[in-house]
Input
Amino acid sequence: MPHMAVRGLLALLFILLAAGAEAFRICAFNAQRLTLAKVATEQVMDTLVQILARCDIMVLQEVVDSSQKTVSLLLRELKRFDSSNYYSSLNSSLLGRNTYKEKYVYIYRSDKTQVLNSYQYDDTDDLFAREPFVAQFTLPSKILPSVVLVPLHTTPKDVEKELNALYDVFLDVSQRWQNENVILLGDFNADCASLTKKRLNSLLLRIKPGFHWVIPDGEDTTVRISTNCTYDRIVVHGQGCQSLLQAAATFNFPRNFQLTEEEALSISDHYPVEVELSQAAHCIQLFSLTAQLLLSLLLSQLD
Ligand SMILES: *[C@@H]1O[C@H](CO)[C@@H](O)[C@H](O)[C@H]1NC(C)=O
Ligand SMILES: *[C@@H]1O[C@H](CO)[C@@H](O)[C@H](O)[C@H]1NC(C)=O
Output
């Protein structure tokens, strides 16, 4: 076989493998009292922007922003960093039972995903301190054209009650939009002093079938060296979602950006948590099959 043809096959192989590896990343981050003054600090902004740029959709919690200035500033710096203009945001109103209020903010790449619809969960019995602001996004996947995100930042003294009420939010949204592919995510405070192992394991979202807690118990999602708690979680539901699931992890930003504990704590006392969805489960199989075929072809030529 001519040399050129082998080179061509190799190139094709790499393209196929690269295409198969491209994933869609969904993240959640408790950015700890994210105010305008905080993002205006250069070092905080620099790190935040790098954390945000990793994600196709980021769900920020604890955004303390009565104007829209904090998010506008973040978006401006993000677009500058990424030299693309493909970032948009969607925010809830300020939520909370007393004078302290915060909002949920989605920041997403509008060239890869769009908001189909969103609503504030109607919390008639006041079960949540910050009721989920639910949104449905498109995905660049033929297998799973859309996914529903349900964010929650629990209040530490009501973790069990709120996490059980989260099951009702799941029922509400999956019926409303006829979509079982739901990702529940955020700072659930689901560990340490806020929730014992026994109570964790008796939650509806643990007992009912079909819910996959992809950030495992024992994973440290806290920045402080002296703490080790799995507060931040991602729970995946639905066949489509499951079949595309590629990876789930915390993002240890202090280690990645070589920050001291103190520097990291100026950004947040939490790590972001992330899931990666592949574009198409079937395609991955097709890719690896094609790759194997090409490889054996190549090897037979080398004999
Ligand atoms: C987003 O925040 C702005 C400013 O606080 C507010 O006016 C707007 O109503 C919020 N969006 C939603 C959907 O609540
Ligand atoms: C946190 O605790 C778990 C056990 O619950 C352990 O496996 C893990 O290594 C600890 N992580 C850190 C960073 O200390």
Summary: The pocket of 2-acetamido-2-deoxy-beta-D-glucopyranose (ligand 2) is lined by residues 218, 220, 228 (CB under 6 Å). The chain has a mean pLDDT of 92. The domain at 21-302 is CATH 3.60.10.10 (Deoxyribonuclease I; Chain A).
